[in-house]
Structure formats: structure tokens, C-alpha cells
Amino acid sequence: MTILRIENLTYGVEDIAQCSEFLDIWGLQKNGASDNSASFKTFENQHIHLRPMDDPSLPPSYEDGPTLREVVWGVDNHAALNEIEAELSKDRDVRKDDDGTLHSCDDRQNYLGFQIADVVKANLHVEDFNFIENIDRVNERSWPEERVKPIRIGHLVYSIEAKDYELASAFYTDRLKFRISDQTKDGGTFLRADGSNYHHNLFLFHRQGSHPYFNHVAFEVSSFDQMMVGGTNMLKYGAKSVSGPGRHSLGSNWFWYFNNPCGGDIEYFADMDRMDDKWEPRFWDKAPPYARWMMGAEEIKG
Ligand SMILES: [Fe+2]
Q: Do 170 and 222 sit in the same domain of this protein?
């Protein structure tokens, strides 16, 4: 099997209009709306669906209030879908839609699905940058666009109980072939899908005393400028910054987190570490510092 990326996310929310406005300001492309639903997409065609939280067609949640109700992972082909169906059917229900999409859940009652990825490559180039005699840009100003482009959904994060945290990640490594990039006894497990080279597409976050909840989803932007412009837009809009901006230790990415009315937090990130098969998983008794640098002292909560 090869899992490539997060394909779509479905939130159960309290106020569709408010959440739609928030995701629009965030920079996502609106892809359809009705009185009781809305859909958005990234520039590489990953979808974010909003539904009323009491919609009976949504998977159940262990959380009260608005939250993520399902993540669908994008795979490379039908053979991968068949393999996942056979694997998960060994010990849990797997439901299949007419179009072949699978629905099931992990060991911690986080609902997940699988479908063939429908990737649209964003045609973008890295911003020009002038530094001493390395000159990309002559006779041109560097004025960033006012509306940012979240290009990809890069990762999502579940907070889990610290107890048996290794078992929680074993479901993803043993059953779905995710690989561990870093794992810390006091922080959690950073996992990347077998078809991805990002430091993490999934982080199972634990702290002593932490309880299960959906923590955040992260959108990749092209540059530090884009992250700062996007974050500044969100502050002007009235969104609550919960951590950052800064640069993480594990993953090395720039980050800026905001509270998301759809559920959990939402993150802009850029410049994350990438891993190939030569990367040996790192196991830490004590996690390195949350950030190499950051504005303010607030850490995202586990
Ligand atoms: Fe993150």
C-alpha cells in the first residue's frame, strides 16, 4: 500500500457561516456551499468539508462541540485500497462507498477513510531572495500578495493519553505502514505516510495528564513571508493566536497556530524537514525544546 497524503477532512461544526468565513480568510478556495454544508479546497485539491455537528451521517466523536470527525487519506491506486480493506477488516468494521472510498477508525476512535488521491500539482516557484551577491531580483520590489495560498494540508495532530502511547502509533506503523521520524517519551510520535517524505503527516501528541482530542491541522505555505502575511491577516480578522510564530525543533518547520472555530487549532507552516529511506527514526527520552525560537511563550497544548 502507499498512502500519499491527507485527501480530505470533515468537520462537524456549530456555525457553518462563521466557519466558512474563517476558512475563506485563511486563504482556502471555496468549492461549494448550501444552507447546511460548505466545502473548501487547497491549491493541490485536498478538500475540507463542513457539516452541522448534529448531522447523523457524520462519524461519532468522543468530543463535545465542533471538531474533526473524519480524515480521509489519499492512496496511489486500487491495489492499495484493497490491501487496506483486507488489513483493517481483520479486527474492525470497514465500510465501502459506491465510489470505493473506505471508512473505518483507528485504535483510539479517531475515524479515518481512504480513497485514491486526486492530486492537482500547484504550479508555483519559490520566492526570489536577495542576499549579499546572491541576487535573484533586480529592479523589482518584493511585495508579498495580501491573500496567502495554503498549498497543501501537511499534517494533522491528535492529542492522546500518555498511557500506551507506543501502542497508538503501532496501529499506524504496523497496520498502515507509516514510519516514525521522531518519538519522544514525554511528547509523542511523529509519523510520515509511506508515500510521503514530510517529517510528519500525523503527530500523536501526548503529555502527562493529556486527554484525547483533535489537536490541529496544518497547511503548508511557500515562505516565511506567506506565513507572516497569513497570520497577520488572521489577527486583523480577530482570530486568536495560540502559539507562534516560531520555528519548531522536531520537524524544523516555521509555525503559527490559531484557534479554529471548526474545531481544534489550525496552523500555517513552511520549510519542514523531509526524510528519505536513509533516515533512522530518533527516539528521545526527553523531547528537545518546543521551538528554536518563537514569539511569546505559549506552546500548543497536548
Ligand atoms: Fe503542526
A: yes
pLDDT, tens digit, for every residue of 173-229? 999 999 999 999 999 999 999 999 999 999 999 988 889 999 999 999 999 999 999
pLDDT at 261 over 90: yes
Cα 89 to ligand 1 centroid, rounded to whole Å: 30
Going from the Cα of 215 to the center of ligand 1, the distance in angstroms, rounded, reads 9
Residues 176 and 226 in one domain: yes
- Ligand 1 geometric centre to CA of 300 (Å): 9
Residue 201 shares a structural domain with residue 289: yes
pLDDT bin (cut points 50, 70, 90) of residue 1 is: confident
**Gap from CA of 99 to ligand 1 centroid (Å):** 31
Same domain, 78 and 208: no
Close Cβ partners of 75 (under 8 Å, ≥ 6 residues apart):
1, 2, 3, 4, 81, 84, 114, 115, 116, 117, 195
Distance 157 CA to ligand 1 centre (A): 7
Cα 257 to ligand 1 centroid, rounded to whole Å: 8
Q: What's the whole-model pTM score?
A: 0.97
CA nearest neighbour of 15 among 52, 55, 57, 41:
52
9 CA to centre of ligand 1 in angstroms: 16
Per-residue pLDDT tens over the stretch 137-150: 999 999 998 999 99
In a domain, 67, yes or no: yes
The domain in which residue 99 lies consists of 3-116
How is 126-148 classified by DSSP, letter by letter? PPP-EETTEES-SS------SS-
